[in-house]
């Protein structure tokens, strides 16, 4: 007998639940995750290298996990800062998922880490759909990529809590129209802060670190409009939407993020027979 | 190309629900795909077919329902189609949208399956070649 069953399950519910749990676990350990998204070659690694170095100089306990399809080049570069660094090879996979991140952190993430920077796979499409349990999501674009990048990748830029422009030292040479870029960012993510950086000249050095530390100390983050529709109707707090962080920063309170909501547990309800 | 991961998640969730209901054959799955979900339905269908192989969903059809993005303006008390690329500032007053009403869905709506375990398939004897 044929039957139509009303399943009503969010496809990413499992990832979101995992991200939610990871966020709570890490918060209990005093760690905040920063998820960095950009296209390949936008200068994520150079910028992160600079920020890690600054953090180490200031005595802020930071760590970084970098994901690539192949090579350990990025980890070698980041490790020069002296911060603990882990390279994750995704073996062809185009994005990180919360469960994968949790697995990689187990037994590695040093106790007392205040900020964990996750350098996602260089890709503006796939990583955008996956919450990694971060409290700050940053989308980066270099001045060479074209001012319409935010319009071409609206999900990546639309869900960011912070947008960073990189390689501003060559902005003039490549004719980067900053105003137009900002306008496009505002179209998909009204109100999101946009900061200018250059790892070469040091413009905006420490901006990312300061933004991350502010989040870690409980300052509210920008809540993107796109994150204000919860795509997955069965749970809460899946996205870095400003609702489920900014709290719990006096760690050690037991973190009662009791998520008694049903994620992928929606019962199969038969609707009609045919 | 995270459509493969998405397809695998759909298959996994439907297979779990089917197993819980004692179902052995799934005919089709209806999925809502928001315009801002970052998923390409054509690519998803292709991956879905591959992900179904060897499961109770083998041969099942994926029916996708597109959901256009809509946002709401608080001062104007109105909502609008955000389009693609989306414009999340109100077309009337320019204020940032108060919220996105629709467009990020990636939701399994319903599943069409065969309720009972299929009877024993007629066993097809291999055809012996004539000598």
Structure description:
The complex is a heterodimer of chains A (274) and B (131). Chain A is an alpha/beta fold. Chain A is built from eight helices and nine strands. Chain A has helices spanning 13-28, 44-58, 73-79, 98-105, 149-152, 154-158, 178-188, 207-216; strands at 2-10, 32-37, 62-68, 85-89, 115-119, 136-142, 162-166, 194-196, 269-273. Chain A has a seven-stranded parallel sheet with strand order 4-3-5-2-6-7-8, sandwiched between helices. In chain A, strands 1-9 form a two-stranded antiparallel ribbon. The longest helix of chain A is centred in the N-terminal third of the chain and has 16 residues, at 13-28. Chain A is globular and about 70 Å long. With 131 residues, chain B is of the alpha+beta class. Chain B has a domain at 2-68 and 103-125: hypothetical protein PF0899 fold, CATH 3.30.2320. Helices cover 23% and strands 29% of the residues of chain B. Chain B has two helices and six strands; from the N terminus they run αβαβββββ. Chain B has helices at 3-20, 41-52, and strands at 25-34, 61-67, 70-73, 78-81, 99-102, 106-114. In chain B, strands 2-1-6 form a three-stranded mixed sheet, with helices on one face. In chain B, strand 1 (25-34), helix 2 and strand 2 (61-67) form a beta-alpha-beta unit. Classes of the chains: A alpha/beta (274), B alpha+beta (131). At the A-B interface, strand 1, helix 1, helix 6 and helix 7 of A face helix 1, strand 1, strand 5 and strand 6 of B.
Short description:
Chain A has 274 residues and is α/β, with parallel strands linked by helices. Chain A is built from 8 helices and 9 strands. The model of chain A is unreliable at 233-274 (pLDDT under 50).
């Amino acid at each position: 007998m044929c039957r139509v069953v009303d399943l009503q399950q969010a496809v990413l519910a499992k990832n979101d639940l995992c991200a939610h749990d990871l966020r709570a676990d890490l918060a209990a350990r005093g760690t905040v995750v920063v998820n960095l998204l950009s296209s390949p070659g936008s200068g994520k690694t150079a910028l992160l290298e600079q920020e890690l170095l600054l953090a180490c100089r200031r005595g802020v306990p930071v760590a970084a996990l970098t994901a690539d399809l192949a090579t350990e080049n990025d980890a070698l570069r980041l490790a020069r800062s002296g911060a603990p660094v882990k390279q994750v090879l995704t073996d062809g996979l185009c994005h990180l998922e919360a469960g994968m991140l949790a697995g990689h952190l187990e037994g590695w993430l040093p106790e007392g880490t205040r900020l964990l920077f996750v350098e996602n796979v260089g890709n503006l499409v796939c990583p955008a759909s996956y919450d990694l349990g971060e409290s700050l999501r940053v989308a980066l674009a270099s001045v060479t990529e074209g001012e319409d990048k935010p319009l071409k990748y609206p999900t990546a830029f639309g869900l960011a809590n912070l947008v960073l422009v990189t390689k501003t030292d060559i902005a003039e040479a490549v004719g980067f129209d900053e105003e137009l870029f900002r306008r496009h960012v505002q179209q998909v993510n009204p109100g999101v802060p946009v900061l200018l950086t250059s790892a070469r000249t040091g413009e905006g050095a420490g901006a990312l670190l300061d933004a991350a530390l502010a989040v870690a100390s409980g300052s509210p983050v920008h809540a993107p409009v796109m994150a204000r529709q919860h795509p997955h109707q069965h749970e809460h707090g899946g996205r870095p939407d400003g609702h489920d962080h900014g709290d719990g920063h006096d760690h050690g309170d037991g973190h009662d993020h009791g998520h008694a909501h049903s994620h992928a547990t929606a019962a199969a309800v038969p609707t009609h027979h045919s | 190309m995270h459509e493969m991961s998405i397809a695998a998640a759909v298959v996994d969730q439907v297979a779990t629900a089917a197993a819980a209901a004692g179902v052995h054959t799934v005919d089709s799955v209806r999925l809502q795909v928001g315009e801002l979900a970052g998923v390409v339905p054509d690519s998803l269908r292709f991956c879905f077919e591959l992900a179904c192989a060897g499961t109770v969903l083998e041969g099942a059809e994926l029916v996708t329902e597109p959901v256009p993005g809509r946002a709401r303006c608080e001062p104007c008390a109105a909502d609008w189609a955000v389009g693609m690329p989306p414009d999340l500032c109100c077309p009337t007053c320019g204020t940032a949208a108060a919220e996105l009403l629709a467009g990020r869905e990636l939701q399994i709506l319903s599943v069409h399956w065969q309720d009972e375990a299929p009877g024993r398939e007629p066993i097809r004897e291999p055809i012996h070649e004539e000598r």
